[in-house]
């Protein structure tokens, strides 16, 4: 067995660390909403302060959570618009026939 394969196997087999979980995604709705509103209210300054105070990893997690939250919100709004328009069109056609 080569040295590189032995080190890789040992590293994989002996590691007890779990992958990092995004702490912002694990928050309750109102907690994340409060943080998100503060970050958006003071947008460029809040990210710089977060980066200086907490480091790059936590700031990256915050940005990823905010982007994921924004995408989920947009998908929900888009779905509601589609359902509403579909119901409206169906109602108009049912009324006309």
Residue windows where pLDDT falls under 50 for at least 5 positions: none
The helix-strand sequence is HHHH
Number of extended strands? 0
Rg on CA atoms, Å: 23 Å
Query: So how many helices?
Result: 4
- Whole-number tally of structural domains: 1
**Category by helix and strand content:** mainly alpha
User: Separation of termini?
Assistant: 78 Å
Mean pLDDT level: 81
Largest sheet: none
Q: What is the percentage of strand-forming residues?
A: under 5%
Global morphology? elongated
Oligomeric form: single chain
User: Roughly how much helix do the residues carry, as a percent range?
Assistant: over 70%
Blueprint (SSEs and pairs):
Layout: H1 3-14, H2 29-41, H3 43-54, H4 56-96
Helix pairs in contact: 2-3, 3-4
Keywords:
mainly alpha, 80% helix, elongated
Model description:
By secondary structure, the chain is mainly alpha-helical. The protein has one domain (20-96). It has four helices and no strands. The chain is elongated, with a radius of gyration of 23 Å. The protein starts with a helix and ends with a helix.
Briefly summarize what is shown.
The protein has 97 residues and is an all-alpha fold. It has helices at 3-14, 29-41, 43-54, 56-96.
């Amino acid at each position: 067995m080569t040295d590189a394969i032995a080190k890789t196997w040992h590293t994989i087999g002996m590691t007890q660390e779990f992958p990092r979980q995004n702490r912002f995604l694990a928050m309750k709705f109102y907690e994340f909403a409060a943080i998100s509103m503060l970050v958006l209210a003071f947008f460029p300054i809040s990210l710089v302060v977060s980066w200086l105070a907490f480091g790059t990893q936590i700031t990256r997690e915050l940005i990823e959570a905010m982007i994921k939250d924004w995408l989920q919100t947009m998908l929900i709004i888009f779905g509601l618009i589609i359902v509403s328009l579909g119901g409206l069109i169906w109602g108009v056609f049912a009324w006309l026939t």
